[in-house]
Amino acid sequence: MDWIRVRGKRSNLTALTGAPRVGECAAMDADSIRQEIELVRADWAARGRHWDRRSDELAEQAARMNAPLIEAAAVGPGQRVCDIATGAGEPALTVAELVGAEGRVFATDLCPEMMLGARRRAAARGLGNITFRTADMLSLADADAAFDRVICRFGLMFCPAPDRACAEAARVLKPGGRAAYLVWGPRDETTMFTVFVAAAEAVFGPLDGVEAIDLARPFSLGAPGALGAALAGGRLAQVEESEVRFAPRVPAAAPFWQAQFEMTFGRALDGATEDERRALEAAVAAGFERLRDGDEVPLAVHVRIGTGVKPAG
Ligand SMILES: C[S@@+](CC[C@H](N)C(=O)[O-])C[C@H]1O[C@@H](n2cnc3c(N)ncnc32)[C@H](O)[C@@H]1O
Q1: Which of 9, 78, 123, 150 could cross-link 169 (Cys pair, CB 3.0–4.6 Å)?
Q2: Distance 44 CA to ligand 1 centre (A)
Q3: Which residue's CA is minimally distant from atom 4 of ligand 1?
Q4: What is the pLDDT of residues 166-180, one digit of tens each?
């Protein structure tokens, strides 16, 4: 699979105009936030086994996604790093190798069910410098100024109050320490999801009526400026947001979409009839077939990275 990073555009947040505010979240009261977190927890708990089964297959893509995030976070040997929403263990496992024996990684997630495979993979790689903990990113168990770096890949979008999650990251960072978050860009700018949405709507009807299919929340910070606003709302300084696009061309004959398919639709598939499952798979396959160019399918991927620094003093 040939992944090509085609663009990495960096913009200073202050240069962005019309950035969506995270104010809607800031306006949520504590009870509404708690209720929303419980919904998210139940959703991910139910997806855990699908992720565990499929995430190894996504290792190559995982490495490609990790690289710009780890670079933006400026992770290096000897650091203490907190990975938030680690799920099946990335980027925590890769970072544990990078920080080495003098460093330490604390990998956290709201759902213990999501971390089962991460623990297994850490043991298989012989990583003795990584600790897994169940924790909500809004209330980490760690002391103030415990970490050199806080990183989070594809997690912040699921938090109903991302600015408060960034404030919590700032609390546990040492002064001068850096936080870096990676999120999906707008949903219609990543081919995998445009094909999935069209297929799911063809089979299940309008998606806002299908509680088991969440193709909205993962993109809640996708609009340019939204991620940077969350970091700034968390009182991090030197906030920057950048756009990263990939243009992979994948072999059409390989079942390249199956792992992401199961991780995206797992909970819906659990409740679907055999006919619905077959129809959904056929609609996805047909969607990619329409995009085929010779032996390959050209895909577009848009992710966004936001960084901020804990002010000194
Ligand atoms: C898409 S997965 C990302 C997993 C991994 N970081 C990766 O990139 O493959 C999202 C993860 O966010 C976790 N999550 C959602 N809300 C959270 C919260 N409030 N605090 C901590 N983790 C949360 C979920 O349990 C899930 O494991």
Answers
A1: 150
A2: 8
A3: 87
A4: 999 999 999 999 999
The pTM of the full predicted model, rounded to 2 decimals, is 0.91
- CB of 306 closer than 6 A to ligand 1? no
Regarding the beta carbon of 37 and ligand 1, being less than 6 Å apart is answered: yes
Q: Is 139 left (phi over 0), alpha (psi -120 to 50) or beta?
A: beta
**What would the pLDDT profile of 243-297 be if each residue is shown by its tens digit?**
999 999 999 988 889 888 888 888 888 888 899 899 999 999 999 999 999 999 9
Superfamily of the domain at 5-186+216-244+302-309: Vaccinia Virus protein VP39 (3.40.50.150)
Is the minimum distance from the CB of 137 to ligand 1 under 6 angstroms?
yes
Band (pLDDT 50/70/90 cuts) for residue 22 is very low
Ligand 1 centre from 276 Cα, in Å?
A: 28
